[in-house]
Amino acid sequence: GESVGLHLPTLSVQEGDNSIINCAYSNSASDYFIWYKQESGKGPQFIIDIRSNMDKRQGQRVTVLLNKTVKHLSLQIAATQPGDSAVYFCAEDTLGGGFKTIFGAGTRLFVKA
Amino acid sequence: GAVVSQHPSRVICKSGTSVKIECRSLDFQATTMFWYRQFPKQSLMLMATSNEGSKATYEQGVEKDKFLINHASLTLSTLTVTSAHPEDSSFYICSARRGTAGELFFGEGSRLTVL
């Protein structure tokens, strides 16, 4: 199967600070990117997405930035809260017999109160 | 948002037995469903793409005879782990989308422990 099966890096931030989580994607032909949040023992939850014809998209407290030149995605969380503690994954839709979603390596976010 | 339900959420079985996991889209029809596997502290690994009414497409390195996938209707896909062994112990997660591309909706996952 396809994935980047690395052990998760960790980001620790103070409550109220902004968090930036980075991700490198693999396929320059991918045209749809998604950030997911996964809490322990649960399935991933959609946070925000972006298409390749955009370089920035904002949601509520979250912003996704896309740099296609270096195949880089970032997720910015404003005013991070304890409830934001989770593992965050970037994912890309890649066409291979129909679109399939491939997950990148995740980042564990710890929010200190 | 759309709801995807997985059952069972946890299953413990003896080595050599087979286990079936169900994935249902509760409020939409899912032409395509996906099965992922996740080991502790690792990312989700795509196992196969399940298309209603046709054979599943397996990712490289995933044994199709070991992991049987059936997508008999637009709302149900099943994953059967045949002759399970301890190394098959993992968190299995299904997902579904309404169309051919776009947002995936995930189930809550099924934790399989093979003794």
Description:
The complex is a heterodimer of chains A (113) and B (115). Chain A is mainly β and 113 residues long. Chain A has a single domain, classed as Immunoglobulins (Immunoglobulin-like). In chain A, 0% of the residues lie in helices and 54% in strands. Chain A has strands spanning 10-14, 19-24, 32-38, 45-51, 56-58, 62-67, 72-77, 86-95, 99-103, 107-112. In chain A, strands 1, 3, 4, 8, 9 and 10 form a 6-stranded mixed sheet that branches. A 4-stranded antiparallel sheet of chain A has the order 2-7-6-5, with no helix packed on it. In chain A, β6 and β7 form a beta hairpin. Chain A is globular. Mean pLDDT of chain A is 89; it is low at 1-6. With 115 residues, chain B is mainly β. Chain B has no helices and 11 strands. In chain B, the strands form 2 sheets. In chain B, strands 2, 4, 5, 6, 9, 10 and 11 form a 7-stranded mixed sheet that branches. A 4-stranded antiparallel sheet of chain B has the order 1-3-8-7, with no helix packed on it. The chains are: A mainly beta (113), B mainly beta (115). Chain A binds chain B through residues 1-8, 32, 34, 36, 41-46, 49, 89, 93, 97-106, and chain B through 1, 4, 6, 32, 34, 36-37, 39, 41-47, 49, 51, 57, 59-62, 93, 95, 100-109, 111.
Provide a count of the helices of chain A: 0
Q: Which ranges of chain B are low-confidence, i.e. pLDDT below 50, for 5 or more consecutive residues?
A: none
Structural class of chain B: mainly beta
Largest beta-sheet characterization of chain B: 7 strands, mixed
Task: Tell me the Rg of chain B in angstroms.
Answer: 13 Å
CATH class (first level) name of chain A: Mainly Beta
Strand content of chain A: over 45%
Low-confidence stretches of chain A: 1-6
Order of helices and strands of chain B: EEEEEEEEEEE
Cα gyration radius of chain A (Å): 14 Å
Largest sheet of chain A: 6 strands, mixed
First-to-last CA distance of chain B: 37 Å
Q: Total number of helical segments of chain B?
A: 0
